[in-house]
Amino acid sequence: MQPVNIGLLGLGTVGAGVVDLLSRNRSEITRRAGRDIRVTRAAVRNPDSPRDCDTTGIDIGTDCHAIVNDPDIDVVLELIGGEHEARDLVMAAIASGKHVVTANKHLIALHGNEIFAAADAAGVVVSFEAAVAGGIPIIKAIRESLAANHIEWVAGIINGTGNFILSQMMFEGVSFEEALADAQRRGFAEADPTFDVEGIDAAHKLAIIGSIAFGIPLSFDRIYTQGIRGIASDDIEYAAELGYRIKHLGIARRQETGVELRVHPTLVSEKALLASVEGEKNAIMVYGDAVGPTVYYGSGAGAGPTASSVVADLIDTVRMMSVDPKGRVPHLAFQPDQITHEPILTEPDFECGHYFRVQVADQIGVMAEITRALAEQQIGIEAILQKDPPTAEDDARVMIVTKPARERRLMKVLDHIRSLPYTREGLVHMRVAQFED
Ligand SMILES: NC(=O)C1=CN([C@@H]2O[C@H](COP(=O)(O)OP(=O)(O)OC[C@H]3O[C@@H](n4cnc5c(N)ncnc54)[C@H](O)[C@@H]3O)[C@@H](O)[C@H]2O)C=CC1
Ligand SMILES: N[C@@H](CC=O)C(=O)O
Ligand code: NA
């Protein structure tokens, strides 16, 4: 059989990982794919930079379009990252009848609807397993292995850099900035690390998860997104005393009236599986009506893990080259004409537990007023903690975890508490996740 020629766009962390893996496991990969898969051309910004892989036999240049238009290239592997240039290259590859593999969640989250429509029309496949949770085969799990289920919710740690920073801060006493610099050195962080710390990267991934779980279009701009920068070490401590860990989660959840798509710091019971996921590791729970809860854990970033998914996509691509396009796994899990536009809910309609911290004058009746306000909105209390603040001797800090409640009700309570004469500035609110795992 003829070898399959890969045109590689980008030879950075992931690109080098792919070249290395294809060479290291060449014989097993060929036995699985049925054909030899080889990178024949690559484009990079600076061809003279040193590489973390052996590039013997690869023609390295700077012109991505020359690769996309090369008739000898069978599959384009997009690993340059970013949005517009990657979109143009992928659309050009599709137009020239080439299959595409990408690790670019930014690209898929923002342009996937257009890209998949073009790919379906051209009879080619765009694969993107590495785009969500790096090496964890979560796309395949949701799209294929759980295809019999009505997916009720998906919740996970889907940004390795953010989880690494939170773990370093909690266990190593490292500052936020130091931990981020370390994540960058280790190759986990995005080229623009604000994508990691502001929750944008997680929102890109959640857009993809939500779409393949619920059969809705990719809806990145409708995702509620909050990053990890605002998490105070005091709240990490208080949460621990209350029996919780603060994790940065992406949550896609069905309600009767629509779907919640949200990314934010979340209190997770220390007994929950997700609470024990540390460092750059990712973990995703998927709840299907037939299967119940399932968990997928592993490395969400780094050269080897990400290359593992990219190469698996290349193998899949090679295998399905000979399959009738109508018989292939649909890009977004559901047949393209079965994608529906369900309402995507906004904050007032989110339903979950809540944590809040409020500093008040330490007077008789204050706690009673706070609990009365909660009761008036029919919000149950899960746990209460009271502490002296680090300064302001006559004040008290009150931390409350509520039972699940519609966020619109909780906001009324918090507005009321803020308006009380003895309430100080700086009320903190975070959401709490309840999982069955
Ligand atoms: N690093 C990781 O752990 C993971 C990365 N990804 C995604 O994989 C993709 C690649 O990420 P990394 O390898 O980490 O990036 P990187 O910054 O290490 O490498 C990017 C490569 O693309 C080349 N490049 C960029 N723009 C180019 C252009 N216009 N023309 C020619 N070459 C160009 C650069 O020279 C470099 O070789 C991104 O979409 C990223 O989000 C996905 C999962 C994990
Ligand atoms: N920057 C991302 C890389 C993988 O997607 C992360 O930290 O998770
Ligand atoms: Na993956």
Automatic annotation (TrEMBL):
Keywords carried by this UniProt record: Amino-acid biosynthesis, Methionine biosynthesis, NADP, Oxidoreductase, Threonine biosynthesis
Binding positions (NADP(+)): 9-16
GO biological process, any: methionine biosynthetic process
Record pathway: Amino-acid biosynthesis; L-methionine biosynthesis via de novo pathway; L-homoserine from L-aspartate: step 3/3; Amino-acid biosynthesis; L-threonine biosynthesis; L-threonine from L-aspartate: step 3/5
Domain ACT: residue ranges: 355-431
PROSITE patterns in the cross-refs: ACT (PS51671), HOMOSER_DHGENASE (PS01042)
Binding site for L-homoserine: 190
EC annotation from Swiss-Prot or TrEMBL: 1.1.1.3
Pfam family, one: Homoserine_dh
Active site: 205 (proton donor)
MF-aspect GO terms: homoserine dehydrogenase activity; NADP binding
Annotated positions binding NADPH: 105
Reactions this protein catalyses: L-homoserine + NAD(+) = L-aspartate 4-semialdehyde + NADH + H(+)
Family in the record: Belongs to the homoserine dehydrogenase family.
Stored PANTHER family: HOMOSERINE DEHYDROGENASE
UniProt name for this protein: Homoserine dehydrogenase
Source species: Salinisphaera orenii MK-B5
